[in-house]
Amino acid sequence: MALRGTATTEDRETAIAAAVAALAAGRLVGLPTETVYGLGADATDGRAVAAIYAAKGRPSFNPLIAHVPDLEQAERHGVFDATARALAAAFWPGPLTLVVPKRPESPVADLATAGLDTIGLRVPANPVTREILARFARPVAAPSANRSGRVSPTRAEDVVEELGEAVAEVIDAGATPVGVESTIVAVLDGRVRLLRPGGVTRAAIEAVVGHPLADDGPLTDDAAPMAPGMLSSHYAPVASVRLEARRLEPGEALIAFGPDRPAGWERAVAVFDLSPSGDLAEAAANLFRALRDLDAAGATAIAVAPIPAEGLGEAIVDRLRRAAAPRP
Ligand code: TXA
Ligand code: MG
């Protein structure tokens, strides 16, 4: 495994060339995006895609997002109606994944879409990764670069820690600015549904669509997950997680939010402040780092201060609920 920096023009060029070569050879690459780091492989190569599932230990019914450099490329793989186009125009490149009908002629491997007749497509905003996608000129399947069920990586070091020798190259572009995964919106049969809250808020999507998003039953359905990343226990640190904590119990570490801390916070075994001022974007960017750092500090129980489930808070609270859910 090679860890490639991107600080200088020369490093960046070397990193891009190495990533493209590894993808072309059917290998796995750790790629920075604005949300979290992805574990990328050539989406048209069924064997490369199989290596993603193997490295993650992911249930193979879980479809992967195909990453492309622009809308024009996306339209080769999926059918975009006027609404899907408007959403792409508003938020790409950026933290939005669109689930649309898959074109029968798309070369994306069936294994990447888990045999569905739909496809999740996204144009990520990280400039190095976009350049890799443009030069590779094939869609790149990339789930978050963590082992299945674990906390998503927001730094290149996290990818190394999670997947180490399974990846040929890890491209280091520093900490990911958004910090939670893309919002997933399905635009199918003229209906727009939110499948996963994420880096684009519900309100921002609704402003483009022109009406409230259909809430299509519960987001969690372990039996037949529509967006299988929605399995109820997910994003889990090793430590147990307790939400809406208004008082610290002995032995707990604290994830704080905003200026007010829960009663008894002074006895927390460790404290991670998501955003001292109560800024949700800052909190989202720090969320997975907080879970990882408290695990690394040896915390066995984490109490999380109340966080409002509005705006970006919807994605933050969603991830924390999954981190707190009973483990299989
Ligand atoms: O921000 C992100 O979306 C990151 C970065 C790396 O792009 N990727 C990511 O991928 O979060 P992953 O595999 O961890 O989550 C993708 C989610 C899964 O829950 C999957 O079930 C859903 O997208 N998905 C993908 N294709 C789908 C489809 N055709 N229909 C429904 N859900 C789909
Ligand atoms: Mg994931």
Can you put this structure into words, describing what you see?
The chain has helices at residues 9-24, 46-56, 71-74, 82-91, 127-136, 156-163, 202-209, 280-296, 313-324, and strands at 2-5, 29-31, 38-42, 65-67, 96-101, 118-122, 140-141, 169-172, 183-188, 191-196, 240-242, 253-256, 271-273, 301-304. The chain is an alpha/beta fold. The protein has 9 helices and 14 strands. It has 2 domains: 2-209, DHBP synthase (Alpha-Beta Complex), CATH 3.90.870; 240-324, Rossmann fold (3-Layer(aba) Sandwich), CATH 3.40.50.11030. Helix 1 crosses helix 5 (127-136). A 10-stranded mixed sheet has the order 1-8-2-3-7-4-6-5-9-10, with helices on both faces. A 4-stranded parallel sheet has the order 11-14-12-13. The two termini are 31 Å apart. Mean pLDDT is 93; it is low at 217-225. 29% of the residues lie in helices and 18% in strands. The radius of gyration is 19 Å and the shape is globular. Strand 2 and strand 3 (38-42) form a beta hairpin.
Question: SSE layout and pairings?
Answer:
Elements: E1 2-5, H1 9-24, E2 29-31, E3 38-42, H2 46-56, E4 65-67, H3 71-74, H4 82-91, E5 96-101, E6 118-122, H5 127-136, E7 140-141, H6 156-163, E8 169-172, E9 183-188, E10 191-196, H7 202-209, E11 240-242, E12 253-256, E13 271-273, H8 280-296, E14 301-304, H9 313-324
Parallel strand pairs: 1-8, 2-8, 4-6, 5-9, 11-14, 12-13, 12-14
Antiparallel strand pairs: 2-3, 3-7, 4-7, 5-6, 9-10
Helix pairs in contact: 1-5
